[in-house]
Design brief:
Layout (H helix, E strand, L loop, with lengths): L19 H124 L4 H28 L2 H5 L2 H16 L2 E6 L8 H22 L3 E8 L4 E7 L6 H8 L7 H12 L3 E6 L4 E7 L1 H18 L1
Helix pairs in contact: 1-2, 4-5, 5-7
Length: about 325
């Protein structure tokens, strides 16, 4: 069996070695391939270096970020601790202020109780003894009528006893006027203003609400003491010959105003009062503390001329709130 073969190609024109032209072409192509290979190698090396640089930068950024997070955590812990310490300090100060407020209120209450006790003792004890002395002097006066010189001495002694009795009665009333308990605040203020005018020669003009209700004992005592202190300040410092006192009631409680026509309060004292300073004197400080104990406010300002003292005591609202709280507690039981 024979296999059919195709025509035999003519390879006579091929040479075992390339000619110069072909060699040159191949050499140029090889050079270009080497150049391209070098460029590619350089690019790969550059890319590798860039990748390493990128990785290095990422590592540095990661380390910096970790350090920043650590610093933030440390600072946050410090701030949290400082905030806790500050909160604790605020709590301590609030508790201290509350304790001071309660202590101040207790001191004022004890002062009022002591004044009431002293007033009662002066009236009941010293007053009675002086009354007995006055009776004895009367008996002695009858027995010494035949001796004009001795009778005059006894009469002088009786007059002095009368004066002492009057002074003690006034002092006991000033310490705690029984009218405050018996007839109420309006009657006590009218009595005090009349006596103050007689002693100081300062005309006190009253404007008291005729429909003024009875307030709790501590409220009426506070208003009376503030009036006392204000009128005494007018007498001591203002040089005014007149004083105006107004006491009204509103939907919240009591509104008290006291005004004079004197030289006015010094600007530095007025500024200290407005700023709540501590160097404002015992009198004004006591007035402010009494008002604060009842959750009220006191304002002292220039009246041009003179000085105006205004006190607001929300006693009716506080009483209503206290009544509501008591009712809720009773219902809860």
């Amino acid at each position: 069996m024979s296999v059919s073969r195709g025509p035999t190609p003519n390879l006579s024109h091929l040479s075992a070695y390339p000619d110069k032209t072909e060699k040159k072409s191949l050499s140029q192509l090889a050079s270009e391939l080497v150049a391209k290979s070098d460029q590619l190698s350089a690019a790969l090396e550059q890319n590798a270096a860039s990748e390493l640089e990128r990785i290095k930068v990422e590592q540095q950024l990661r380390a910096a970020n970790e350090q920043l997070d650590l610093k933030i955590q440390e600072r946050t812990s410090e701030l949290t601790l400082a905030n806790e310490l500050l909160h604790a300090e605020i709590q301590r100060r609030v508790q201290t202020e509350e304790m001071l407020r309660k202590l101040s209120a207790r001191i004022l209450t004890l002062q009022d109780e002591e004044r009431r006790r002293l007033g009662r003792e002066l009236h009941d004890s010293a007053g009675q003894l002086l009354a007995a002395l006055h009776i004895n002097l009367g008996v002695i006066a009858q027995q010494t009528q035949g001796d004009p010189c001795l009778s005059a001495k006894v009469a002088d002694s009786a007059a002095l006893a009368d004066q002492v009795i009057s002074e003690i009665r006034t002092l006991s009333y000033l310490l705690h006027p029984p009218m405050l308990d018996e007839t109420g605040l309006a009657g006590a203020l009218e009595w005090y203003a009349r006596g103050f005018s007689d002693r100081s020669k300062i005309s006190v003009k009253l404007d008291i609400d005729p429909a003024l209700p009875r307030f709790p004992t501590e409220v009426e005592t506070t208003i009376f003491r503030i009036v006392q202190e204000s009128l005494v300040n007018i007498h001591r410092h203002s040089g005014s010959r007149t004083a105006f006192l107004s006491l009204r009631s509103d939907s919240d409680g009591a509104v008290l105003t006291i005004r004079d026509e004197g030289c006015g309060i010094p600007s530095e004292v007025l500024k200290s009062v407005e700023d709540g300073g501590a160097n404002i004197g015992v009198g004004i400080g006591g007035m402010r503390e009494r008002a604060r104990q009842l959750r009220g406010s006191i304002s002292i300002r220039s009246a041009n001329p003179g000085t105006l003292v205004e006190v607001n005591l929300p006693v009716l609202r506080s009483a209503a709130s206290a009544t509501a709280v008591a009712a809720r507690r009773k219902a809860a039981r």
